[in-house]
Design a protein that fits this description.
Structural class: mainly alpha
Largest sheet: 2 strands, antiparallel
Number of domains: 2
Oligomer: single chain
Strand content: 5-15%
Strand order of the largest sheet: 1-2
Number of helices: 7
């Protein structure tokens, strides 16, 4: 038999927050998994049952319970990752992809890597790296994205794709 468990007690506010995290679709999946593990531990379920229901290993389940005991709700959030912060924000990446899916301002058929880099104020290598992830080559019917930081505004309808000549 293992060592005796220390009961995990939750305040009403903590329980409501954990339930919201565990059941909300907008919550990050890892945070929802951790919240579920804490709720199950507070209900007194055995370790193996908590691991089975959440998909966490025993070590991870215990780690999140230790962090919850020490830091409460804040302990369930991811800690900052080591290394420098990202240089290109997710908003800038979204803007770059939207621009790549729209018609260029010069009336051409597609953007070049250089013109995209210049429009988004990033390097050509960054443009190639961002666009190569997932092979984003599909065009969207319209773009309505505004980036207030760089003054770039895209609000144009795309011309319908023409069929290739035989």
């Amino acid at each position: 038999m293992g060592r005796p468990r220390t009961p995990l007690t939750l305040t009403a506010e903590e329980q409501a927050t954990l339930r919201a995290w565990a059941h909300a679709g907008a919550t990050a999946p890892r945070l929802a998994q951790r919240a579920t593990a804490i709720l199950l531990a507070a209900d007194g379920l055995p370790w193996k049952e908590i691991c089975r229901r959440t998909g966490l290993s025993l070590e991870n389940s215990l780690k999140w319970q230790r962090r919850f005991r020490g830091q409460r709700l804040e302990g369930l959030r991811d800690r900052p990752r080591p290394g420098p912060p990202r240089r290109i924000s997710p908003q800038r990446k979204t803007l770059l992809i939207a621009l790549a899916c729209s018609l260029p301002p010069d009336g051409g058929r597609r953007w070049s890597v250089r013109t995209l880099a210049k429009a988004c104020q990033v390097s050509t290598a960054s443009v190639q790296r961002i666009l190569s992830v997932g092979q984003r080559t599909q065009r969207t019917p319209q773009s309505n994205i505004k980036d207030r930081g760089s003054g770039i505004t895209v609000e144009r309808q795309m011309k319908p794709e023409t069929t290739p000549r035989a």
